């Protein structure tokens, strides 16, 4: 089964909405490499409509311009791009199509299809939220910015807990944390009394 990786810019207090308003002061070569690596690992992109519109409005022009990021632009253009939207869409960017049917069912079937590489998501927080809740995201790549926005759409809102396992962590010179989480089994039950037992053992036998 193919894996889905989801990459998101996120503030210290969990906001993922409107990153164009707060993200760019923290962008540097380290972040560019992290984003590029996540997208380069996939031959298929799964995007929400707003994220797709942003990509389609920029990357084809960058590819045509032949600048420093033309290689990345070409890779994105060559990739299969599947767009999640309730509206009927028309596309001008090559290799673009609309996801048909129910989101969870369609993505489950997409993961089952043969493929040597992963399926990547970039931004598209509303779609990521739904797929996280359905257990369909295999890796969550969070670029945690050192800013508390105090308002805006958050990635994790009220609902059933989603257990995750930290795979790697890297600190950029800007103070951004690059955290990669994988899905995990549900945590076991524990109580305050269990914590007291561990604390007592640690106190009796310090490292």
UniProtKB/TrEMBL annotation:
Which regions span the lipid bilayer?
none
Domain Bacterial bifunctional deaminase-reductase C-terminal per the UniProt entry, residue ranges = 3-177
What GO molecular function annotation could you give as one example from this UniProt entry? 5-amino-6-(5-phosphoribosylamino)uracil reductase activity
GO biological process per UniProt = riboflavin biosynthetic process
Give the InterPro entries listed for this entry. DHFR-like_dom_sf, RibDG_C, Riboflavin_Biosynth_HTPR
PANTHER family for this protein: BIFUNCTIONAL DEAMINASE-REDUCTASE DOMAIN PROTEIN (PTHR38011:SF2), DIHYDROFOLATE REDUCTASE FAMILY PROTEIN (AFU_ORTHOLOGUE AFUA_8G06820) (PTHR38011)
Its protein name is Dihydrofolate reductase
Q: Which organism is it from?
A: Rhodococcus maanshanensis
